[in-house]
Amino acid sequence: MSARTNKPHEVVERALELSRADGCVVIADEESTANLRWAGNALTTNGVTRGRTLTVIATVDGREGTASGVVSRSAVTADELEPLVRAAEAAARGAGPAEDAQPLVTGVPESPDFTDAPAETSSAVFADFAPALGESFARAGAGGRELYGFANHELVSSYLGTSTGLRLRHDQPKGTLELNAKSPDRTRSAWAGRSTRDFKDVDPAALDAELAVRLGWAERRIDLPAGRYETLLPPTAVADLLIYQMWSATARDAAEGRTVFSKPGGGTRVGEKLTELPLTLRSDPNEPGLETAPFVLAHSSGDDASVFDNGLPLTATDWIREGELKHLSSTRHSAGLTGLPVTPSIGNLVLDGGADRSLEEMVAATERGLLLTCLWYIREVDPATLLLTGLTRDGVYLVENGQVVGEVNNFRFNESPVDLLGRATEAGRTEKTLPREWSDWFTRAAMPALRVPDFNMSSVSQGV
C-alpha cells in the first residue's frame, strides 16, 4: 500500500511516531496540477497530475551542538516510511553541528483543517477559460495572428508536524498563463502573462486584443544603438528585478559585507533612504489575491531559511517603507548574529506608493523613450552592487510625443534594481503581475510601472 492511499496527516503522524531523534519535523506536500498548451491557434496537449513529496528533518543533540539531517522523497510507500525516517536520522548523526540550530518552534495553535483531505485541482479549473481561449483562437486567425502558450494550475496542500506538537496545514493555489502572438512569418512576436489563483480573473480575449495592438506597433521597425534611454518598465519587468533584489536582501550577508545592503565600514544599510519616491516594498501572507503560507515552510536551510524555524508564524513585513530600507530577511539564527529583527521570507511581494496612473497614461506623458514588454535571462554580475544583466524580449517600442511609433531592436541591459529605485522618477498604479523570468519559482507579485530616465541598454541584441 502506498503512502498516498493514507491521508497526509496520518503519514505525518506515523513518521513522527517512528522518529528516534531528539527532534523531528515532517512535511507532507500533496500536489496536483492541470495544464493546457496550444500552438498555431489550436490546443495541442492537456493533462492532470497528482503526487506527494515527504520531507523528514531529524535533529540530534550532541556535546558540540545540534545537528540536522534532511531527506525528501516522492511516492513513499508504507514500507519505505521507516527507512526514510532512519535516513534522516543517519544524515543528522553524520553531520557536524548545524550552524543555524535553534529550539524547534512551539506554541503555534493547530490548523483547524489539519486532518482534512488535501485540496486538489483538475481540468475543471479551466471550465470558463478554455471556451474563451477557443474564441480567441478564431479572432486571432481572422486577424492574421497565431497564438502560442500555456496555462498551468497547481494546488499544493502542505501538512507540517513537529515533535514539539505543531500541526499546521496550508493550501497554496498557483496559476500562470503565458500567451504569445506571432505574425505568420514569425518576424514579429508579442507576449503577455498573468498570475491567477483560479483562472476566473483571466480574460484571454483582452490579452489577445493587447497583443494585436503590439503586433501592429511592430509593423514599423526602427533600429537604435546601445545607450541610456528614458525607459518605461512594465509591472512584469519591475517584478523580475525586485524579486531578485528580495532574494539578495538577507541580513547575514549584508552584515558580513557581501551585498549591496552592506554599509561601508560595517553593519547594514537598514534605515537608509533608497529612493525619494514614497515607495513601499512589502510582503503580507494575507495580501488579497496573493495569499501565501502564514508560517515558515522550510524544506532546507540556506541564507534566507532555516529548517529549525518551521512553523514560525509570519506577519506583514515592510522591506522598504516610503523609500527607506526597513528590514532584511532573517532567520532566528541570523537575527541573533546581526541584532536585526526576525523577519523570515514570505511568498509574495508588493510595491506600492506610486501615482494612480496606468502604463498607458505614462506612455501618453512621454516625450521620447522606450517601452519594454519584459526581461529574460537575468543573471547577477556583481553582488556588491547587485548589478544584473539580461535581455529584453518580445517587443521594445519607441515612444515619441506620447505615441508608440514603432518597434526597435532588442537590447542587453546592465542595471542594479537598487540603483533603479533610486533613479526612478515615476511609479504608476500597482497591479497584480506575472514575473516572466522567475515564474517557475515566484508568481505572487503586484507592481507598478516605473519610469527610469537613463536605463542602461549596454548592447544591441538580435533576439526577437
Automatic annotation (TrEMBL):
Pfam families registered for this protein in UniProt: PmbA_TldD_3rd
UniProt-recorded Gene Ontology molecular function terms: metallopeptidase activity
Classification via Gene3D superfamilies: PmbA/TldD superfamily
Region described as Disordered: spans on this chain: 93-117, 172-192
Gene Ontology biological-process annotations: proteolysis
Domain Metalloprotease TldD/E C-terminal span(s) in chain numbering: 227-458
Superkingdom: Bacteria
Protein name: Peptidase
Source organism of the structure: Streptomyces albiflavescens
